[in-house]
Amino acid sequence: MKLALASAPASVESARKQPAIQVSNLSIVFDTRRGQTIAVDRVSFDVAPGEFICIVGPSGCGKSTVLNTIAGLEVPFEGDILVEGSRVYSPRPDVGMVFQQPHLFPWKSVRRNIAHGPRMLGKSRTEANAIADDLIAMVGLKRFADAYPNTLSGGMQQRVAIARALANQPRVLLMDEPFGALDAQTRAVMQDNLLELRDRIKATIVFVTHDIDEAIVLADRVLIMSAGPGRILREVAVKLPRPRSNSVMVEPTYLSLKKDCLDVIRAEGLRAFNQSDAS
Amino acid sequence: MQEGTSARQEIALRTDGRGRRPDSARLRRLNILVGALSLPLFIGLWELVSRSGAVNMVLFPPPTVVAAAVLEWIRSGQFLGDLLASLFRVTTGFIVGGLLGILLGILTGQFPVVSSLLSPLFHILRPIPPIAFVPIVILWFGLSEAGKLFLVVWGVFFTVWLSTHIGVQKVDRGLIRAALMLGTPRRQMLQEIVLLGALPYIVVGLRTAVSISFYTLVAAELAGAFAGIVYRIEIAQQNLQTGQVMGGLAALGLISFAADRLFSALAERTVWWR
Ligand SMILES: Nc1ncnc2c1ncn2[C@@H]1O[C@H](COP(=O)(O)OP(=O)(O)O)[C@@H](O)[C@H]1O
Ligand SMILES: [Mg+2]
Fold first, then answer.
1. What are B34-52's pLDDT values in tens digits?
2. Is the pLDDT of residue B16 over 70?
3. Is the Cβ pair B273, A106 closer than 8 Å?
4. For chain A, give me the number of helices (H) and strands (E)?
C-alpha cells in the first residue's frame, strides 16, 4: 500500500500555474449579542503545492476561523477560497484536518478510528484496515492498534488524529494548534515526527500555532497575524535546510529569523497598545 | 535489580505481605462479617418484637409467619401466575416506552424543527405523575391489559426521551466536525456518531426508567387487575392476611432489585469503550 506520494518533479511545474490553496480577500463576520464582529479582515495568501506554511498570532486573532473556512466548516462573509482550483463550499475529503483536541471517536479502537475515513468513502473493511495499519506503523503505534483512545496519552492520541486525517490521502492537511495541549517534551518529539512524516506524504500543510519557535521549526513560510480584526502582518520565508529537526533552534539563521518575527510582533503590540490608549 | 529487591522488601515489611497495610486488612474482614450479619440480625429482631406481645401480631406478623404465607402462595401456583403477569407488564411497557423514547429523543435532539414541534408538549406532560392518569386510563381502557401497559409506557417514555434528547444535544461538536472532515454522510453521522455519542446518557435514562416502570406497575395493578404481585398484595390486605401482604412487598422488592442489577450489568457492557 503506497500513500499519496505526489510526483514531485511534475507538480513543481504546475505549482507555478496553480497554488494548492488560494485565499483571496477573505473576511469573516460573526453575529454576536453586541452586534457584528469582524473576526477576519481581508486576508489573502497563496500556498504552493507541497508547501508547509505556519500561521502564528495571538489567541483570538482569527487563526482557527481562517483554517475552518479553508476546511469548509465556516462560510466566508466575503472573498474566495480555492483548493486545487475549485471553490470550497463544505468539508471535502481531499482536505484533512487535525484539531487542537484529538477528537477521536471514543467507541472506536485506534485502527477503526483511522479506518473511519476510508470506510466513509466507500472502501471495504479490509481495504480500510490495510490503510489504517500502514498509518499506524508510520506513527509508531503498532502496539496500540486495538486500544481505545481513553487508554492513550495525549501525544499518542494526537498521533492517531494525524494518522486518521491522512487516511483519506488529503492533498491539503490543515492543523489547528495540534500540539498546543501537550507538554514541552512531547511537543518537541511530535514536531520531529511531523517533520519526518511530512517528507513522506508530500501534502500541502497549513499549520496554526501561537508558538513562534514551533512555526519556524516546521514551516517553509510563516504568516504572522495580528488581532482585532485578524489581518496578515508579514510573511517570513524560512530558508532553513531540510530534512530538519527540532534542533535547528540553536542555529544562527534560526535565531535571526526569530528576531525578525519578534520585532514584527513587538511593533504591532506597541501600535495596538497606543491605539487603545488613544481611544 | 538490587534496588528493586530492597524496595520490595521494604513494602513487605510495612504491609501484610500482600501489599496491604495489616490494619486495613483487619478492617476489611470486619466489614464483611458485619455485612453478612446485617439481614439475620434484622430478621431476628423483627421476630422477637413481633412475638413479644408489645405489638398486634395480626397487623405485624413475625418473619416465620410471612415465610409460611409466601410458601403457601408459591405452592398454590398463584405466585407464578402473578409473577408472570407483573413481569410481562413491566418488560413490555419498558421496551415499548424505551424504544419510543430513544426514537423521539433522537428526532427532537437532532432536528430543531421536530424539537420545536414536540418539546413544549412533552415538557408540559412529563412532570405529571403517571399515577394521576389512573382515573382516565380506567375510563379509556377499563380493566384491560392495554390500560396497564399504557401507564408503564407513559412513565418510561418521558424519562428515556429526555435523557436521549439531552444526550444527542451534548454530543461533542468536535467529534461531529472531525467526522464531517472525514466525509461522513448524514446517515452514518446519525448512526455512528450521534447515537453512540448519546449512548451513555440513554443508558442512564433507561436505568432510571427501570425503577419508574415498577412504580407505575404498582399504580396500574392497584387500579384493578386479575393477577399480579401488587394485585395479590391488595387482595391479601382486604382479607387481613398481613403475612401475605408483607411477602408480596418482599417479592416486589426482590424483583425490582434483581431487575436493577441485571440492567446495570447490561449497561456496563453497552458502553463498551469505558
Ligand atoms: N462561532 C463564533 N461566534 C462568534 N464569534 C466567534 C466565533 N468563533 C470565533 N469567534 C471570534 O472570532 C475571533 C477569532 O477567533 P479564532 O479564530 O478562534 O481565534 P484564534 O484561533 O486565533 O485563537 C475571536 O474574537 C472569537 O471570539
Ligand atoms: Mg484557535
1. 999 998 999 999 999 999 8
2. no
3. yes
4. 8, 10
What CATH architecture is B63-270?
Answer: Orthogonal Bundle (1.10)
Interface check for A39 against chain B (CB to CB < 8 A): the answer is no
Looking at residues B10-16, what average pLDDT do you find? 61
Extract the C-alpha cell encoding B96.
415499548
| CA torsion angle B123 B128 B134 B135 (round to 10) | -100
As a residue count, chain B comes to 274
Q: Is the peptide bond before A243 cis (omega within 30 degrees of 0)?
A: yes
* Domains in chain A: ranges and CATH: 19-94+171-247 (3.40.50.300), 104-169 (no CATH)
Which residues, numbered 131 to 190 in chain A, qualify as contacts with chain B under a Cβ-Cβ cut-off of 8 Å? 148, 150, 161, 164-165, 167-168
DSSP at B46 = H
A150 contacts on B by Cβ (under 8 Å): 273-274
Distance CA B226, CA B221 (A): 9
Low-confidence ranges of chain A (pLDDT < 50): 1-2, 4-12, 15
Give exposure, A246-259, as e/b (b: 16+ Cβ within 10 Å): bebeeeeebeebbe
Spell out which residues of chain B touch residue A181, defining contact as CB-CB under 8 Å: none
Domain boundaries, chain B: 1-54, 63-270
Taking only the tens place, the pLDDT of each residue in B233-251 is: 999 999 999 999 999 999 9
CB B273 within 8 A of CB A148: yes
ipTM score here? 0.89
Q: Calculate how far, in angstroms, residue A117's C-alpha sits from the geometric centre of ligand 2.
A: 24
Task: Please tell me if the CB atom of residue A247 comes closer than 6 angstroms to any atom of ligand 1.
Answer: no
